[in-house]
Amino acid sequence: MTLNIRNEHADALARELAQIDQSTITDAVITALRETIDKRLEEESPRETAVRILARRGLSFKGTRQPVPPAAYHELDHDLASE
């Protein structure tokens, strides 16, 4: 599969990182994505990530929101397995 960067700024940043690391552009993008994902997972929980993403769009969770019960995932697994 190919990686096609159409944004000039993203392309320039990828090339700059590749030059610093003395690697390919693809390896530089993989490294940057992996480091960003690892950093985010260390810094915030999935719920905190969701809150941040919603806030960017002017949205939020309802105060009365409850977690999805584990049984719902079990039922979903069975529904998907039958497809």
Give the gist of this structure.
The protein is mainly α and about 80 residues long. It has 4 helices and no strands.
List the helices and strands and how they pair.
Layout: H1 8-21, H2 25-43, H3 46-56, H4 70-81
Give me some keywords for this one.
single chain, 83 residues, mainly alpha, 4 helices
Q: Structural class, from helix and strand content?
A: mainly alpha
Integer average pLDDT = 85
Count the beta strands. 0
Counting H and I runs of at least 4 residues, what is the number of helices? 4
Count the domains: 1
Largest sheet: none
Low-confidence stretches: none
Distance between the termini: 27 Å
What series of H and E elements makes up the topology?
Answer: HHHH
Q: Helical content, roughly?
A: 55-70%
Q: Roughly what fraction of the amino acids lie in strands?
A: under 5%
Give the CA-based shape. elongated
**Rg (C-alpha, Å):** 19 Å
Structure description:
- The protein is an all-alpha fold and 83 residues long.
- The chain has one domain.
- Helix content is 67%, strand content 0%.
- The chain has helices at residues 8-21, 25-43, 46-56, 70-81.
- Helix 1 (8-21) packs across helix 2.
- The longest helix is centred in the middle third of the chain and has 19 residues, at 25-43.
- The radius of gyration is 19 Å and the shape is elongated.
- The two termini are 27 Å apart.
- The model has no long low-confidence stretch (mean pLDDT 85).
